[in-house]
Amino acid sequence: MNFDFSDDQKFLKSEARKFLEANCSTARVRGVLDDDGKAYDEALWKAVAEQGWLGAAIPEQYGGLGLGYLELCVIAEELGRAVVPIPFASTVYFVAEAVALAGTEEQKAWLLPKVAAGEIIGCLATSEGPGPVTAGAIKTTVKDGRISGEKVPVTDGDIANVALVLAKENGKPALFSVYLDGEGVTRETLGTLDPTRDAAKLTFKDAPAIRLGEAGQGMEILEQVLDRAAILLSFEQCGGADRCLELAKAYALERYAFGRVIASYQAIKHKLADIYVKNELARSNAYYGAWALNTNAAELPLAASAARIAASEAFWFAAKENIQTHGGIGFTWEMDCHLFYRRSRQLALVAGAPRVWKERLVSHLERRNAA
Questions:
Q1: Measured between alpha carbons, how far is 115 from 117 in angstroms, rounded to an integer?
Q2: Domain architecture of the chain: domains with CATH
């Protein structure tokens, strides 16, 4: 079985890299990091929308390109490589996927064309504090189409127009879309390790809410959305991890110590080799996940968990070892190493921590083995 991308998909990947190299340098990423009043790069967001990437997997009837998940995967990898400071993941991987999966025809016709055109920014609001998101932990409630409660932290919650909120209706979890610029919604900006990705606390007080899917199906739909998002995020993480290896290798080949380039020292060789091994393991799991996602295979939940775990570990390890390879200068503000370290931590938590995915992986394996 061939798990590699087609020539057309590789061409898309190449063109995406060229576009981001020209339009999303690390200096541009720092422009968001250094500006306290700037939550994301609006000009880059518009440019990405014009490329059609936001609608890569959205059917043509809803204003998208109708390409498919494999094309979205190769785009995601390049976005991760460039540590783009835009709300792509929140809008495309979570909100658009949830609506495409469980929305009514009316909901799809209203939201998906706006996502594809870059007119809407979305966010996923499930957490209500530390700990995994479970049905028992949900305190936010919906009554008569009005939602009340708090969600924290919410990635891109300070800049989003629409939130997908997990809340209880008649005591059962369900997902609701909430218009954040409307009545009954307040936001509080939160400081995070990676300021290039916005985060906020959302407070709802009798805000209008529209249910997505059937009553009581909130956790079931959420799990399906998370599985799909985990695979797409794993490609972002693979892209970031590969870039860390490139940066570490380049520095090791130009930095001299005791009359030799440091790449000639065994300790540095081992660091780079360890990064490479973890990156390749993550990539193999991500490719398997891409196949499962594109074919909607029964192995999708298992593949998503494996991809999520391997990619989170690989990106964090690569970012950490990239700093170590650079030595003392790697910790300074002037170097780009910290941009990737920050993003590795942010991506590892945005859809649930690795320990949560490890538990999911074990559960899926147990169910498969018991069948």
A1: 5
A2: 7-116 (1.10.540.10), 122-216 (2.40.110.10), 222-370 (1.20.140.10)
